[in-house]
Design a protein that fits this description.
about 300 residues; alpha/beta; TIM Barrel; 10-stranded parallel beta sheet; 12 helices; about 45% helix; about 15% strand
Length: about 300
C-alpha cells in the first residue's frame, strides 16, 4: 500500500481549527501538534458566536487575534483564515491586519474572504445584515480592495460600499503577493468572483461529486474571465470522525448535515474517500476540527497518510 507523498503526491493536507467552546491553552498545543505531525496548513474561522446559529451559543474567540497567535505559535505551516466576513471589518483594515500577521509569521500568511452568513452574530452586535445580493456585492468590492492593498504599492478604488484613494499599505507584506482565498459554493456569484480575483477557493462539507461539479463551474468562470483555471488552488474542508459517535460528539445536531463531507469508517475507507476528492480536483484537503479536539483521531490520520514535517 502506498502512503503519504507516494499515495497523493500533489495533494496538500491542512487542519481548520474552530474557535468555539475552547481555550487558548487548548489551541496553542493543538497548533504545535498539527505542525509537528506534518500538515501543510492551519486555519481559523471568523465567528463571534459558535457556528450553530443559536442566540445563546456565544463562546467563541475573535478570529484576527487568534490568527496572530497562530502565526506566532508556529514556524513552518501556512497560516490562513477560512474565511473572514467582509461585513465585520472594512477591507482596508483587514489588509492591514493580515499584513501584520504576515510579518509575525515570517511570510506564511494567507487570507480568506466570504460574504458572511451567521445572522445571529450580526443581529446581536448591531451589524447590518443585508440581503444576499448586497453581501455578494460587498464581497466583490472588498476582495478588489484587499487585493490591491496586498499586491500593489498604491491602490485607488471607487465602489458603492468601499472606496480607496491612493491608499498605501506600509510596511509592505513579507510576501510579494499574499494569497487570497474565497470561501463558498455559490455557482453564480461566489465562483465568478473567485475566478476573477482570488488565488484559491475553499468549500466545506460537500461530497466528492458536488466538489467536482462546483470545481468545473469554477473552471468555466475562469475561461470566461480569460484566466488559467490552474492558477486557482481548490480545497475542501472535511470532518474526520473514525466512528459515528465521534461525528455526533463533534457536530451535535449538525452531524447529519455535514455527513456528506466527513471522512469516516476504516482506514482504507478514509484513504479511498480522499482519493475521490483528489480525483475530483482537490489540491488540498483540510480537516475541520471542533472542540473538544480529538487529537487521537488527528494523529491516526497523519499516521495513515504517512505525513511528515
Amino acid at each position: 500500500m502506498l502512503y503519504g507523498d507516494e499515495m497523493f503526491p500533489r495533494t496538500k493536507f491542512g487542519v481548520h481549527t474552530g474557535l468555539q467552546h475552547t481555550t487558548y491553552e487548548s489551541l496553542q498545543p493543538l497548533w504545535v501538534l498539527i505542525e509537528r505531525l506534518g500538515f501543510h496548513w492551519i486555519s481559523i474561522w471568523d465567528h463571534f458566536y459558535g457556528a450553530t446559529g443559536q442566540p445563546d451559543d456565544a463562546a467563541c474567540y475573535e478570529a484576527v487575534a487568534m490568527h496572530s497567535a497562530l502565526a506566532a505559535t508556529t514556524s513552518r505551516v501556512r497560516v490562513g483564515s477560512l474565511v473572514y466576513s467582509v461585513g465585520y471589518r472594512h477591507p482596508a483594515v483587514l489588509a492591514k491586519m493580515i499584513t501584520a500577521i504576515d510579518h509575525v509569521s515570517g511570510g506564511r500568511a494567507d487570507i480568506g474572504l466570504g460574504a458572511g452568513w451567521a445572522q445571529v452574530e450580526y443581529d446581536a452586535y448591531g451589524i447590518p445584515f443585508p440581503a444576499i445580493k448586497t453581501r455578494m456585492d460587498q464581497l466583490e468590492e472588498a476582495v478588489q480592495c484587499v487585493r490591491g492593498l496586498l499586491h500593489d504599492e498604491v491602490t485607488s478604488f471607487s465602489g458603492q460600499w468601499f472606496s480607496l484613494d491612493n491608499a498605501r499599505n506600509e510596511p509592505r507584506p513579507v510576501q510579494k503577493k499574499i494569497p487570497i482565498w474565497i470561501g463558498g459554493g455559490g455557482e453564480k456569484r461566489t465562483l465568478s468572483i473567485t475566478a476573477r480575483y482570488a488565488n484559491g477557493w475553499n468549500v466545506p462539507f460537500v461530497a466528492p461529486e458536488a466538489f467536482r461539479h462546483k470545481s468545473q463551474v469554477l473552471t468555466e468562470h475562469c475561461e470566461k474571465a480569460g484566466r488559467d483555471p490552474k492558477a486557482i488552488s481548490r480545497t475542501v474542508n472535511l470532518g474526520i470522525a473514525w466512528t459515528d459517535e465521534s461525528l455526533r460528539a463533534q457536530f451535535g445536531h449538525l452531524a447529519d448535515y455535514v455527513r456528506p463531507g466527513v471522512l469516516t469508517g476504516s482506514e482504507q475507507q478514509v484513504i479511498d474517500r480522499i482519493g475521490e476528492y483528489v480525483d475530483a480536483g482537490a489540491d488540498q484537503i483540510n480537516l475541520a476540527l471542533r472542540a473538544p479536539f480529538d487529537t487521537d483521531a488527528l494523529e491516526r490520520f497523519a499516521q495513515v497518510l504517512g505525513l511528515s514535517a
